[in-house]
Amino acid sequence: MAQVLNQNSSGSYTFSSQPRAVQQRKKYKEQWKIQPDDQLNQYGNIMYDRRVIRGNTYALNMLPAASQPDPIEIQRQQEERKRALARRRAKEQARRHTPEPIEGRKHIPIQTELYLEELSDRVEEADVDVQTDAFLDRPPSPLFIPAKTGVDQSTQILEGELFDFDREVRPILEVLVGKTIEQSLLEVMEEEELAALRKQQREYEELRNAEKVEQQRLEEQERRLREEKHRRMKQAADVLRLEKETAEKLAAKAFAKSYLADLVPSVFNNLRENGYFYDPVQRDLETGFMSWIMDSTMEELNSVMVGRLLLDALLREVVTKRNKDYDELIEKLKEIANAPPPQVEDESVDQPAQELQTNNLDTIQQQEDNNGESNEASNTGDVAEVNEEME
User: Fold this and answer.
1) Whole-model pTM?
2) What are 65-77's pLDDT values in tens digits?
3) The dihedral sign for the CA sequence 73, 79, 83, 89
4) Phi then psi for 156, rounded to 5 degrees?
5) Fewer CB atoms inside 10 A, N or C side of the chain?
């Protein structure tokens, strides 16, 4: 190093460097690598010294002079930290601790001093009165006058020596008036130009509106002509279509007439022979009236036959029951007639009994005659009704 740091007897540091010529710097940095260390430039400026701190030095992590830390120093620092930690742990263990409270209780801080004092959250207060003198107004501050400095001098200026207002103000007035007139003329010309522009704009707008109206009229006329043209073309097309359809219909009609001239009579003859053409009255009589008459007749005949069968069954049942009753009655009468008469002492009593028996026999015979006549009359009436229904 070319620089030298010494400490004098007063305790302050001084710097000194021997003068020498500056070596010529090479063009490329690669040339520095091939040079030996003793040939490198050794600057004497402390701004390039890495041990000089620049800027804020607050909480600066100072690096040692050597690039690699000393392992012996690191080991010594670790041992010191271990010893300090062991001393702190031993001190904490040596300190007396209050034992833990038993279950259901808790520790409460108390005073163990010789003189006890009352502990309270309320701060002691006291009222004190103070009387002050009457307030006096502050006097006004005196006017500040700075102290005079320098030497006073004086001079005499006569009238007209420095400035003649009438003479000096003339060019200023000329300039002001000229500028005012010029500005006024410019404003007037600008207003005239704006008026001309507005007039030209109005004329242009009127012309444009007239052209627009004319354009709209021409467009409307063109539209009407186009619509009229399309309408006429559509009418002509419709007329042609109708004429063509009419011609086709006439041709078809003539062809059909010529084709069906001999076909229609033969078809009608075949249909008439096959029964497709008939008299509606005759067909209605054959299909509707005659079938209805036959059905009604068969229903009436069936009802008559059923009535006859029911009547025969009733008559048979009544005759059989009457014959059975008559047989039983005759048997009873025969038993009564064959039975011996009872022995009665009094003849007057026997005579009424015989008369009563004789009356009973007559009554029974009369009832049989009446029943026979009524049965014959009913049978005769039923037969007459059946004959009428059959007719």
Assistant:
1) 0.23
2) 555 667 888 888 9
3) positive
4) -120, 125
5) C
Q: Which helix (H) or strand (E) holds 231?
A: helix 165-260
Inter-residue contact 17 to 44 (CB < 8 Å): yes
Rounded to whole angstroms, what are the CA distances from 238 to 225, 242, 324? 20, 6, 107
For 8, half-sphere exposure in the C-beta direction (CA atoms, 13 angstrom radius) is: 6
Q: How far is residue 300's CA from residue 307's CA, in Å, rounded to a whole number? A: 10
Cα→Cα distances 172→151, 169, 177, Å: 39, 5, 9
Q: Which residue has the tokens 């069936």?
A: 302
Number of Cα atoms under 13 Å in the Cβ half of residue 31 = 7
Task: Specify the 3-state DSSP secondary structure of 188.
Answer: helix
CA 284 to CA 277: how far, in whole Å? Answer: 13
How far, in Å, CA of 273 to CA of 267, rounded? 10
What single letter denotes the amino acid at residue 115? Y
Q: Are 341 and 350 in contact (CB under 8 A)?
A: yes
**Cα of 91 vs its chain's centroid, Å:** 75
Locate 381 and state its tokens.
Answer: 């009436």
Tokens standing for residue 329: 């009655």
* CB of 371 closer than 8 Å to CB of 322: yes
Statement: residue 347 has pLDDT above 70: no
Question: Which residues contact residue 119 at a Cβ distance below 8 angstroms, ignoring those fewer than 6 apart?
Answer: 111
Q: Return the number of other C-beta atoms located less than 10 Å from residue 105's C-beta.
A: 8
**Alpha carbon of 351 to those of 281, 341, 359, 364: distances in Å?**
88, 12, 12, 20
Q: What phi and psi values does residue 17 have, to the nearest 5 degrees? A: -145, 140
Nearest Cα to Cα of residue 200 among 212, 208, 211, 210? 208
Total length of the chain? 391
Is 378 buried (19+), middle (13-18) or exposed (0-12) by CB count in 10 A?
A: middle
- Which residues have CB under 8 Å from 175's CB, separation 6+? none
Given a cut of 70, whether residue 12 has pLDDT beyond it is no
